[in-house]
Write a structure and sequence with these properties.
Layout lengths: L5 H47 L3 H9 L8 H13 L2
């Protein structure tokens, strides 16, 4: 490292460490935000499940053997598929 002294190297290393720490801290905040949103959605789902009071055997059956019932069910399935694939 010709032409650099110890203090310049220290400043460069310190700046790199600070930038890395800020990046890591920002990523952690984003992870906590996403986790908070996912848990909020899960909590809302279970609250709504409590209001609806569905038959437990039907819920378990629907988890493993999906069916389409009623008018417009096929359109609903296609729109859900599009909402998941499009983003």
């Amino acid at each position: 490292m010709a032409g650099t002294n110890g203090s310049q190297q220290f400043i460069t290393i310190e700046t790199d460490l600070q930038a890395g720490a800020q990046y890591k801290y920002e990523v952690r905040k984003l992870e906590f935000l996403i986790a908070f949103l996912v848990f909020t959605i899960a909590a809302c789902f279970f609250v709504e499940l409590g209001y609806a009071k569905p038959d437990a055997s039907e819920v378990l059956k629907g988890l493993f053997v999906p069916t389409l019932k009623g008018n417009g069910a096929t359109g609903l399935a296609i729109s859900l598929l599009g909402a998941m694939v499009m983003p």
